[in-house]
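#random but structural
TW: two for the price of one
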Amino acid sequence: MKPPMRLKNLKYILALLGLLSAFNIAKSQEMLGLTMGNYKGIAGAMVNPASMTTNKVYLDINIVTANVFLRNNFAYLPKEDFVIWDLLDNNYQFPTYGEEEKNILYYNNSTPKQITQNTRILGPSAMIQIGDHAFGLTTGVRVFTSGNKIPWNVAEFGYWGLDYDPLHNIEFDEKNIDFGSNSWMEVGLSYAYDLWKYYDRQLTVGLSVKKLWGYAGTYAYSNNLNYLVPNDTTIDIKEMNASLGFSGPIDYDNSDFLNTSPIFRGSGVGMDIGVVYVKKREVELNKWKGERLCAQNIIDYDYKIGVSIVDIGRVKFKENAQEHQFDDVSIYWEGVDTLQFNNANSFLHELSNTFYGNPNASYVGDNIKIGLPTALSIQADFNLRNNIYVAGFFIHPLRLNKRTLRRPPQLAIIPRYETKYFELSVPISLYDYTYPRVGIAARFYFITIGTERLGTYLGLTDMNGMDIYASIKIGINKGSCKERFGGACDNNNFGNNILRKKR
């Protein structure tokens, strides 16, 4: 039998989570060095499906793209004490702080706390463009976790425990706390069409539809939490409205992992939609007339602007799922330091019995729905001269309901140098409209690697998260017939016969 867990040990659990937050190898939130260039291929469809016809490749095969991101604004390691490269030293010892010898510090301020973790693996995927049409197929696995508006005082109690005297006998009134996590597999079909062309102008529309299979998910939401802690053994909850739901591969009676079917406990549908407007630098003199695909035109542009909404949809979990609701409850809860529980069900039964006098009263259903991290995105790309470009990127979350994952907002400028076989970009971004970042990404032939937090690797910033992404893919460029067939195609069929506009 597993030993019972004491509620006061919550502080150690939260401290461990904070430590894991700091040292997870993690994803760049939007992979700006991969998704904004002219050789992005199918990767661009993750930001805007309409971008597939604006590539300089007509065929793109993604072998694997891995990207992970984690960031929090509570727990950290000072840059003076830790750099990621220290992990390569087998003799390295993590620093300790204070009399309790904790391995992390926390930002001592009243800013609401947030945490975001996003892992995405884009598996075998591909796109092909045929004239005005482009088609894409994607496969992938995603894990997304978001915590929003977590009260600073709750975070500090999690760090210190209920015996933290400076917060005793202070009444806290907190609103709209939410936490969610979801892991799923997805298979998607994408389509883009050049809807309108007029001389040097072009408008493209795009759509991606994805089938989702959920592996595990959870959410917790409270629109009202009024409480105080009089001492280290008591919590006085004056008013609380909260909901909790979860589904996962765990036996809630004994905490054992389930190895039986079904592997996936939920399903759903996702969607991305977008448009791209292109102002071309040149006007096509001869249209592509269905010759070899490699003869399709490459037309440089002055600028292009895209608008998209990504990750519309949700996953509904119906297997091994529970939903609990606590409406307008209050309690003067003594002896919480001695409370024991062996598993999830025993904890929830105790919680329900405490508030309602009935261990099953909080249970309201056997299925839950968790929305995807829906967001509005705006992209812009300007061709300054030759191989020099500057892109702009904006993304903002759209919270469709309280059980929706939150995608953090981001505003970025991405200057880059781009050729057929080499690309270098330096994303400069403002994360969550507050935290500035400088990154770097490089593509050499078919391999791309990048980060949007270069300071983390150089030891210039505190360690409160990190990110990295890498991609291996194969692309075949438009206008490459001459290279591939030794001049077998007439130059007029390469798409290089254009008419320059007078300036």
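TW: number two ↓
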Amino acid sequence: MALNFNTAPDAQQHPSSINLVSCFITKPNGLLATKVSLNPSLILGFDLREDLYSPFLGGMITISDSINFVSNYPITGGEIISFEIETSYLENGTVSWELMVNNIETRILPDPKKQVYILKLVSKELAVNETCRVKRKIKGSYDEVITELVQKDLKSDKKVFTETSKNKTVKIPGSSDARPFDLIAELCPQFIPKHSKDREDKIKKINKSQSDEQKIRGTAGAFFWESRRGYNLFSCDALCDISPNFEDDEPTGRFAKGELLTETWGPYIEEFANLDPAVQSAAGGDSRNLIKAVIFTKEVDVMEALRCGRRSTRVILFNSGTQQYEEYVYNLSDAWNDMAHLGNQNTYDELDFSPAGEYKSLNVGEKISREMSFVINHETFFNKPGIADPEDDSNPENPTPTPDEYKYFAAQSSARFDLLTNSECIIKIPGNPLMCAGDRVLIHLQSKAADALTGIYDLDVESSGVYIVKELTHNYIMSEGTSGICDTTLRLMRDAYGIDTDPSSHGQ
């Protein structure tokens, strides 16, 4: 299916030029809050960071103070700094951020009339989180519970975008240190998306005549992160699904409740010395679509994959309420086709070291490399006659209010998160302030074959393709007054190799 990629409008200026429209600093003193303008001439630069694994934004601003600003307006922490910039990436409009001063770092005095210091910035919700303890029972679908924690407990007025969860939870925080972000981090691996494919056979109780090992199908696990757009809660599969989410401006099945506000950018094309002008034209004639640098930081790690149980994991469960013991086995080979993947890879590589012609199995890829154990008690929140049943379809007339499906997906969720980091790279591109963590990026990398660098762009079909933005940093460098330039550094990841137009040889 064809992808709908976003590209920048034609640039009339430097491909990553910016103009600082305003920068204000406000002391959070309620009705007595004071707001002052931070002179752009004091600002050497500022960084803004988003992370798919982080529930808050981060950044820093470097100040060269020759007017004794920090003495006239003492920085005590908690101040709100707001930025508004114009950029050559936008034909019209501005981009803005608002972050809290967490601390002052690296203050130096290069001469008697000047001091340089760095203000480290975070989202204000992080401070609220440190002072908030959730002590009430939380109940409902995972998307409802997490949205409530953000809006009710963190008192955040930022938008919350969620995918609908298939399962529900009932939980009483077990410690006095149950901060909202900690609870959300605990709930995310248990999130089963509503669109998740069920196993071919419905969940059954273990039959004594059957093997204790049951194949687990489906997909679980979600990310919760903050971006410039707001808070986001979406499954691994949702982020990997590059098919259209909407038809005629109406949400379809998967995101019927929420809206996945991510974009797919590109193609970004690797820049090299003898790049043919025709290739430049293929990038839209826009130098902002060129990759300045690329570094692959992670590709394959057999030992890590085995120890994390990426290929096969046994889940051991003991129900303290019923005194029942159960085992379930997850195999990646069985679940691969039930997941959405970013690369054009049909299977996952096997690790079969079996000697040829000998009756001896050394297929490491099929053997269990990790065991996970849990103690569960379905009676905790079940006050009706009889014994609580963890299944949602075992007693249709009187079902258990909160069936525990997560036990079937615990291993899969862990393996799914690990699988997404199968390949990681860092690229540097001209500043794109609209890009956010969780977005997808199509990159085209030049083949490194000896006969490839001939001015004709020969695509590396294994390493090229769609990646998820795991982390990004917008680096703004002020050159003079309110003007400057911006670069964006992306840390990308994906679960499979290959590009959609060409088959991958991995796993063959």
